[in-house]
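Protocol step 4 of 6: record predicted structures for both targets in the notebook before any analysis. Target 1:
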Amino acid sequence: MNLGDDVLAYPVYEFRPLGIYPDLERWDEVNQKWIPDDGEWGIYFASKQEQVHWHIFMPYHVPFGWQWCDEDQWARNASLKYPKHPRGNAWHYEVNWDWKRTEWKQRYLHPNEAVTKNRPSQCGNGWGPDLFHIHDPYIQKGLVRRQDTKEVLVPPTKCYCALCDKTLKVI
C-alpha cells in the first residue's frame, strides 16, 4: 500500500510503555504478529493480564503541532487571561502553517492509528502517549521518538500559540 502525504501528514512515532508488565507484548510490524516484549521500541503494546493496550494518540487535525494547557486557568479565568481563546478554552495550540492542510481525511490509515485494529480482544482500555501534548508523561520522560530517525521527541520551552497570536513560555 502506498501511503501518501494525506496519510503520513505526521511521521510514524514509536515509544516504550511506562511501567513494567510481566506479560507485555509488542506488535511486530514486519511479521504482523504479537511477540513477547523484548525491550525494543514499538508502535503498539498490549497486556492481556492487565486488559490494556498502548498506542500513540495522533492529533485529529493537521496542521496542529504542540498543545498545552494553562492548567490554572479554566473557563472564566482563561477568558480573562486569554481573550482571543474561544469559550474560555485554556488550551494553547501551535500551528504549522507550512502543512497547508486543515483536514486529515486519511488519519485512520496512518500506521500509528491503523495498528490499533490488531488489538487483542481481551484488551479493552487504551493508553499511551498523546502526541504533541507538552505535558504528556511519555514525552516528558523521553519515551517517544520518530521511527525513521530515532530522534526522541523533545517538548519546546516556548511555542507560538495560534489563538493568542504570540509566543508564550510553556507552563
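Target 2:
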Amino acid sequence: MKCDDFLPAIENGGPLRKWRARSHAAQCARCAAVREGWLETRRQWANPAATTTHQRQLWASAVPSERPVTSSGVWSARRWAFAAAASVLIVVGLSASLWRPSPEVAEVAPPPAPALNVAELEQAKLGGDSSFEVIEQALNQLEVELEVLALDAALLDARSEVELLLTTYKPLSVSQVSN
C-alpha cells in the first residue's frame, strides 16, 4: 500500500483495506502519525461541546417565528388518487385479459407416416451392396415418424391443458360482462 492510499483506505475502505492500512501504519512512521491524528480528530468530533446561551439565542434569532404553510396535503391526495387510478387500471386490464373468450382450437391433421418396408430391412440384415442405404432410409423414416408422434403428443397435451382451463375458469359471455 502506498502512503497516499492510506487515509482513504482507513477512513472509507472495507475490512480488508482497513486491515492493510493498519498493517502499513505499523511499518510506516508517517502513516502511524497520520492515523493517530485522524483518531484524535474523530474523538473530538464524537463529543461536541454543548452550545452556549449566546449560541442558542443566535440560532433562535435566525429561525423565522412563523412556519410557512405547505401544500403537502394536496400533493399527497393527488398521489393517492393517482395510485388508486393506476391500481384500478391494472385490475381491469388483468381481469379483461383473463376473461376473454378462448379461441377455437383448430384440428391439425398429422402428415401421413411413411410405411417401413420390412422385407428390405431383412435383406439389408443379411447383407448386400446397398444395405447401408436401406438402413439409412429406414432410420430417416423412423425419425420422421418420431417427429410426427412428438407433435401429436404435444397437441394432445395442449388440448388437455385447454380443457382443464376451460373447466376451471368458465369463460364469460357478452351478456354476463355487461350486467
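Step 5 preliminary note on target 2. The helical segments are 6-12, 15-27, 29-46, 53-62, 72-98, 118-126, 131-168, 174-178. The chain has a mean pLDDT of 79.
Proceed to step 6 after PI sign-off.
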